[in-house]
Specification:
Elements lengths: L1 E7 L9 H12 L4 E7 L25 H11 L3 E7 L7 H8 L9 E7 L5 H13 L3 E2 L4 E3 L2 H7 L3 H10 L1 H25 L1
Parallel strand pairs: 1-2, 1-3, 3-4, 4-5, 4-6
Length: 196
C-alpha cells in the first residue's frame, strides 16, 4: 500500500492552506489501496537549517532536534507527496524550503505533485519547487493544480462557499494530477524495492 503525504506548506496565521490541503487529501482518500496522511509544517517546529553535517552525507547521525527527527521519519515513510503551497514574492514560503532542506535521502526516487495559489495561481512557487525536487532526486509531476487568486480573496472575505465552488471547479485537474502521481508512485516504489 502506498503512503501519500499531503504537505501543508504554510504556517502563517490565518492561512488559506487548510482549504486546498484538505480538499486534495479528500480526493486522495477516494482512491483505493492508499494510506493518506497530512504533514502540517505547524506540527514540525524545525529551526532554520543549521546542521554542521549535510543531510546527504552517508552515515549521517540522527538529528538532535526532535521535530527534525519526526519530519525526516515522516518523509522516509512516504511513497509520494502533494505539496499544498502559496506563492510569496515569486517563490515558495521559506518554512517549506527549509523543511525540504533538512532531508535528503528520504526524498529520493519519489514523485511529488503540487497544489498552489497566489499571483498567477502560485505557478512561480511551483517552478522553484520543481527545481528543488529535481536536486533532491525526486520526480516532479508535470500536471499541477493552480488555484485562481479569487480563492484567496474569498478566504479573506470569509466566503467559504465561494472557496468550495472554486475548489470544485478544479476537481478534474486534481484527478489528472493524482492519476499521474499514483502511476509514478507505483513505478518508483517497484524500482526502489527491486533496487534494494
Amino acid at each position: 500500500m502506498n503512503v501519500i503525504s499531503v504537505i501543508v506548506g504554510s504556517t502563517r496565521e490565518g492561512r488559506f492552506s487548510e482549504f486546498p490541503a484538505h480538499w486534495i487529501k479528500n480526493h486522495l482518500e477516494q482512491r483505493l489501496d492508499l494510506k493518506v496522511q497530512l504533514l502540517d509544517l505547524r506540527d514540525f517546529a524545525m529551526p532554520l537549517f543549521d546542521s554542521a553535517m549535510l543531510p546527504g552525507i552517508p552515515g549521517r547521525p540522527p538529528y538532535e532536534n526532535e521535530a527534525v527527527r519526526r519530519w525526516t521519519a515522516s518523509i522516509g515513510a512516504s511513497d509520494a507527496f502533494i505539496v499544498a503551497t502559496p506563492e510569496y514574492n515569486f517563490g515558495p514560503p521559506a518554512v517549506l524550503k527549509n523543511a525540504m532542506d533538512w532531508v535528503y535521502p528520504e526524498w529520493q526516487r519519489k514523485p511529488v505533485g503540487f497544489v498552489s495559489w497566489g499571483s498567477q495561481g502560485g505557478s512561480r512557487a511551483v517552478q522553484q519547487l520543481r527545481e528543488t525536487a529535481v536536486e533532491l532526486h525526486m520526480a516532479p509531476i508535470r500536471n499541477a493544480v493552480h488555484l485562481p487568486v479569487t480563492a484567496i480573496y474569498a478566504h479573506f472575505q470569509g466566503k467559504s462557499d465561494d472557496i468550495q465552488a472554486i475548489l470544485h471547479a478544479s476537481d478534474a485537474q486534481a484527478n489528472t494530477m493524482i492519476d499521474d502521481l499514483l502511476w509514478w508512485s507505483d513505478a518508483l516504489k517497484a524500482a526502489r524495492t527491486a533496487g534494494a
